[in-house]
Amino acid sequence: MHGDDVASAGVTVTTEVVSKTAELFFEMLKVAIERERSAKLTSGKESKGLSSGEVTYQRLKEGGEVTMLPSFAKEDYGVLLKKAKKMDIPVAAIQEQGKDNTLSVFFNVKDEQAINAIVQDIVRDKLKQPEQTERMITIEKDHVEAFQMACAKQDIPVNFMEAQDGVKCIFGAAYEKQLQAVVDDFQKMQTELSHTSIATLQDKRGRPKIVIEDTEQGKKLSMNFCTKAKLERVLQERLGFSESKAVQAANVLTVNLTKQQKDYYLSSSRTLEQMDYFEPHIRLENENLLTEPFSFAKMKFANEETPRLTITSGSGNFVVLSGNSLNREEAERNIRQHLKVEDAEVVTAILNKAEKLGFVEVPKQVQYKEYHIERDSQNTFTVRGGSTEVRLNLDDKLTARKQLMDSFGMTATKADKIIAKAQKQSLSRNLLDQAKRKMQSAGDTLKRKKRERGSRK
Questions:
Q1: DSSP 319
Q2: Measured distance CA(107)–CA(65) in Å, rounded
Q3: Which residues does 422 contact at the CB level (< 8 Å), separation at least 6?
Q4: What residue ranges do the domains of the chain occupy?
Q5: Are 339 and 313 in contact (CB under 8 A)?
Q6: Measured in whole angstroms, how far is the alpha carbon of residue 235 from the centre of its chain?
Q7: CB atoms near residue 340 (< 10 Å)
Q8: DSSP labels, 96-153
């Protein structure tokens, strides 16, 4: 390394890993958090946080465009977080499934230089330790993105620092053998790519197209000019390239593009390519005004069969509904819990919109519209609807709610309203009304009764 001349390349080269459209990233982040929620419920255990002081995703969103630092050593995250807090820099981290050693660290683009400095400090401190635990190799700058991706796939924490003779890849000594295997594979990949040519040409109408020729496989492809993300996907699907090989091949094309072509070529990201579709800010015709403060977004990942719907409040609370589970009661419970919404009318409006979008089942239809509610003791009440009648306990509202929902096919919101009405009823007045009805009924019986006279002799 060259002392103060060293500048981190590890942050800037990964900006494209996250969509430049911040809202898409956040919708995906919500789904990731929802998966963690579900995992906690399934296991019955609360997972331990990585560290205190991590900000929520809405805090990052408030700060502007977001980028990330992948393959960051989990053991160093505490130090990074501590330094970031001192500099008042919000950061968030996600540990991907199956990766125990590394984290993806998210932060605002405006804090990129500060994060660079923090990463450099962490690496320099390690390099100064009496017992040298860090190792370095030098790679070419245009190889960093693909090499970093290959390391991430093997769950090897790495940092990159740019020097005068190239980019330094710093890694822990414990991963030396694993990284050597990555280097060997990467060199093999470079040899394979020497048999592949990718160029931009113009068709008869003067429009640019991309021509790919792989002499080793004897294949040649021609396609309309597209984004880098799409080209990477085509190389994987049509030529069988690995993800890192496709990235490296696509990077080669960047060198010979005009500025206008390059802006378009790099305008998309792999994140967007993971989507079959993404529909943000959904609005319906004649929509209930109560849903206006909430943002609805629908999406489907390419590797999943189930679509998802995210609903986000203005304060940043959110809930994720899956097309795989349309249970209305479960959806209402999740909306109340995660969106922090208590108002029954607002909950109903959100449920109705989610129903129209196909993520909540239609409520069960009943033959009657009104219920007769009567409190008949200090802790019991009776509800009649049509030919159905149930007697419920006011001291156990959860059971009462479930009985109402099961007996009448009503929503939890409707059940809560009925319980609330029963609570407000005056017990003494009800008992007096019951007594009056009994007296009236008894009096009517006497008035209608015929006198029987004995026979005259």
A1: E
A2: 9
A3: 373, 374, 375, 381, 383, 392, 394
A4: 3-163, 195-273, 276-356, 372-444
A5: yes
A6: 28
A7: 11
A8: -TT-SSEEEEEEEGGGHHHHHHHHHHHHHHHHTSSS--EEEEEE-GGGHHHHHHHHHH
How many beta carbons lie within 10 A of that of residue 205, not counting itself? 5
Indicate the SS3 state at residue 320. Answer: strand
With beta carbons less than 8 A apart as the criterion, state whether 8 and 116 touch: yes
In this predicted model, what pLDDT tens digit does every residue of 341-396 receive, in sequence order? Answer: 888 889 989 998 999 999 998 765 444 457 888 888 888 888 887 767 888 988 88
- 438 vs 104: CA distance, rounded Å: 74
Question: Token pair for residue 209?
Answer: 């197209």
Listed in sequence order, the residues at least 6 apart from 230 whose beta carbon sits closer than 8 Å to its beta carbon are: 268, 273
Separation of first and last alpha carbons in the chain: 137
- One-letter amino acid of 239: L
Q: Report the distance separating Cα 46 and Cα 267, nearest Å.
A: 39
**409 Rama class: left (phi>0) / alpha (psi -120 to 50) / beta:** left
Q: What angle do CA 59, 65, 69 make, to 5 degrees?
A: 85
Those residues whose C-beta lies under 8 Å from the C-beta of residue 87, and which sit 6 or more positions away, are 114, 118
Please write the tens of the pLDDT for every residue from 297-347: 888 876 677 888 999 887 778 888 988 778 888 899 889 988 888 888 899
Virtual torsion, Cα 392, 393, 397, 402, nearest 10 deg: -30
Query: Tens of pLDDT along 109-130?
Result: 888 888 888 888 888 787 777 6
One DSSP character per residue, 156-204 reads --EEEEEETTEEEEEEEGGGHHHHHHHHHHHHHHHHHHTTEEEEEEE-T
Q: What are phi and psi of 240, to 5 degrees?
A: 70, 25
C-beta separation of 241 from 189 below 8 A:
no
Q: Are 192 and 216 in contact (CB under 8 A)?
A: yes
- Sheet containing 102-108: give its strands across: 66-73, 102-108, 91-94
Tokens of residue 113, six digits: 């230089």
Q: Give CA–CA dist 405/395, Å, rounded.
A: 17
What is the length of the chain? 457
Chain-centroid distance of CA 231 in Å reads 26
- On whether the CB atoms of residues 93 and 105 are closer than 8 A, the answer is yes
Q: What long-range pairs does 413-422 form, CB within 8 A, spacing at least 24?
A: 413/332, 413/344, 413/347, 413/348, 416/344, 417/344, 418/371, 418/373, 418/383, 419/392, 419/394, 421/373, 422/373, 422/374, 422/375, 422/381, 422/383, 422/392, 422/394
pTM of the model: 0.48
Pairing between β-strand 208-214 and β-strand 196-202 as defined by DSSP bridges = antiparallel
Distances in whole angstroms, Cα of residue 351 to Cα of each of 41, 284, 361: 22, 14, 9
